[in-house]
Structure formats: structure tokens, C-alpha cells
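Support reply, case 0932

Customer input (verbatim):
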Amino acid sequence: MGTKNQNDSSVANGHEARRRIAARDPLNDPYRIVERYVGTSRDGLGRLVTFDVWEADYRITIFSDPDHAFVYDNYVQGNKCGQAWVFDTADVRYKKIELKQKVGQSLKCL
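Our regenerated output:
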């Protein structure tokens, strides 16, 4: 989700936050994308919907910043502690975790 405003596309610095911003764009709404195909044959509809929804997913993926122009400064570096968002596959959601360093037998923030 990043460390900056998750709803502002000019500063959001997390891949997931940027994906969610792009997903809210009406151009990427799958219902809007497929509505024009109501009278199309079943096979034609399948091909058209697959292509158009794939294009929306591509736009969302590009906006999520895979090249890290916006996504940066999200992980603790050096001898510090902090937090990170990690996807929990068991709960199928992101969870914020605490990051600490192991010093000897204990976890500490330096």
C-alpha cells in the first residue's frame, strides 16, 4: 500500500494503492467495457470481453508502477524498524506487519 497518501495518484507510492486508484477509473470498469456487446454472439462476446478486460488489467498494472517511478521508500533499510504491508494468502488480504532486526537472541530496533 505504500507509505504516502494511498488515494492520491500524485504521491501514492505502493503498487497495491496505485492499482486501486487505477481500478476506480471509469475507463477500467469491466461493466462499462462490456456493455456495448449486449447483442453480440456468445463466441464473439467471449473474445471481445476477454480482450477488453485484459486491456483494462494492463492499464491498471502499468499504473501500479512496476518500474518504480512512484513506488519507493516502502521498506525499512539499515538498522531501523518499521512496518510493511504483506499479502496474507490464508486470509486473502493485506496485513501490516512490524519489522524488527534480530540482535543476538532477541528482536530489537536499533
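We compared this against your earlier run and they match. Two observations from our side: The helical segments are 15-23, 30-35, 42-63. The mean pLDDT is 84. Please reopen the case if you see a mismatch on your end.
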